[in-house]
Amino acid sequence: MPDSTNPESPKQERPRYDDVVSGIRDMIIEGELAPGPRISERELCARFGVSRTPLREALKVLASEGLVELTPNRGARVIRLTEADARDMFEVMGTLEGLAGELVAARIAAEEIAEIKALHYQMALHHARRELMPYFRLNQEIHRKIFEIGRNRTLIGIYRGLAGRIRRPRYLANISPARWAEALKEHEAILDALEARDGQALGRILKDHLRKTGETVLQALREETGGGQAVRREISGTGRAVAGLPAK
Fold this sequence. Notes:
The chain is mainly α. It is 69% helix and 3% strand. The protein is built from 10 helices and 2 strands; from the N terminus they run H-H-H-E-E-H-H-H-H-H-H-H. The protein has helices at 17-29, 41-48, 52-64, 83-107, 110-128, 132-149, 153-173, 177-196, 199-225, 229-236, and strands at residues 68-71, 75-78. Strands 1-2 form a two-stranded antiparallel sheet. Strand 1 (68-71) and strand 2 (75-78) form a beta hairpin. The longest helix has 27 residues, at 199-225. The two termini are 35 Å apart. 34% of the residues are buried.
């Protein structure tokens, strides 16, 4: 019987490389890997069933996304998000999303609208079930598609450079049940403007959507810095408070 805890076991089924990147990314986004302490390569190798070489390659990808800091001879650490960092990122991303909304309204095809609608309805179902991470993945997929359908390669490149860094703060905003519900309503307005191909309205809604998300994140960071224990429990967990489950 193969040793499921040994990453070098020859009979062990290896996960795909991008699955390792995705898995570690989710651990960072959900707070399972906290900022500051050195990341244990041994524990991650055992968890994902890989050797240190593919694990380190995965960490390099996450470093390029701005989620991890690699220090020679000191290993990897999750980057700590500061209030100033969050403010700067949301200001820029809000402007980018507003421009993407104006472009996509003029360029989107009927079948692409149908695809985004399908993603939206599935996302709304996850909200109804209080399934935060599946909801969040579809949320990010919708935002990504808006940029891609806008068909501006320069804008897409800038977005991709920032999307990884802002993913964790965007997830944090949904820790607030009130903000989560409000964000879903904003996505309904996004869909309405998209179907109407109203670029000005869509750009305005998207920019305002990012502004409100940023305000929620900044408030959470202020409370965490100030020692707010309830906020710290929610941020360091996996959204259990949002799902109505007891916080760890």
